[in-house]
Amino acid sequence: MAKKILKVKAKASGDRTKVKMMAKHIMESGQRKDKKTGELIPAKFLQELKVEHGGKVVFEASLGTAVSKNPYIAFNFAGGAKGDELVLTWKENTGASATETVKVK
Amino acid sequence: MSMNRRTVVKAIAAGGALIGAGVMMPRAAMAAWAESAFKADKQDAAMNALLGSTDTAESAEVTLKAPDIAENGAVVPVTVRTKMANVESISIFVENNPNPLVAEFKIPAGTEADVSTRLRMGKTSKVTAVVKADGKLYSAAKEVKVTIGGCGG
């Protein structure tokens, strides 16, 4: 399996779960030039991110190139308990994708 | 010895099952990335492509939290939140960026319309958050001054 790029903190409190995620990703916009060659560096960024809890999609994001390097996204959803598993799927503009799981604390 | 062998076999079997589950994940089921909206170079065009309309109503119920002055345009923290019911999506636009659409977040039922993220800004610009609720579009905007742009290189 590919190396994990998502760092996730999911914490259940009361009747909801707070999720903070950070992806380790360069988010290359395709608008920067290589300083040596003067050529554009091809874009390489995360396009989609989906979070599922118990088979239900709780969050879905479409990202553009204007999202910062190492994207950080935080959201809350109702439900979720300690020990539950979140399934996170991401997809890059290059077509690369992966699924990672994380436990709710 | 035989116990060890047993655990090893078990571990391999479990690992195999995990890999199988990974392959069967319905990747194709992911929402299509709105390419035309993300590639648009004008905010109106991007909004039209993404939401089908530019007819947004400024609403006090949409809270857009962003700094007045962003010293580093490469990392501008932004929070969008609303108490409205039936929120379907939240999208963020930066008017003066080469591609104004920054991101779109789908909010399924049960998820709070409260999203934080960090974005890049090339220069001082208006940041607009658009909330789609009950099929209507509501927005909040804020001017963010950028000292050092985040798109140079």
UniProtKB/TrEMBL annotation, chain A:
Membrane-spanning regions, if any?
A: none
Sulphur oxidation protein SoxZ domain location: 8-102
The record's Pfam families line, in alphabetical order, gives:
SoxZ (PF08770)
Q: Which InterPro entries match?
A: Ig-like_fold, Ig_E-set, SoxZ, SoxZ_dom
What's the protein name?
Thiosulfate oxidation carrier complex protein SoxZ
Source organism: Pontibacterium sinense
Gene it is expressed from: soxZ
Automatic annotation (TrEMBL), chain B:
Which key words are in the record?
Answer: Signal
Q: What would be one Pfam family of this protein?
A: SoxY
Domain of life here? Bacteria
Q: Which InterPro entries match?
A: SoxY, SoxY_sf, Sulphur_oxidation_SoxY, TAT_signal, TAT_signal_bac_arc
The signal peptide stretch is 1-31
Q: Which residues form the Ig-like SoxY domain?
A: 48-151
> What NCBIfam families does the entry give?
SoxY_true_GGCGG (TIGR04488), TAT_signal_seq (TIGR01409)
Protein name in the entry? Thiosulfate oxidation carrier protein SoxY
Species per Swiss-Prot/TrEMBL record: Pontibacterium sinense
Q: What gene is this protein translated from?
A: soxY
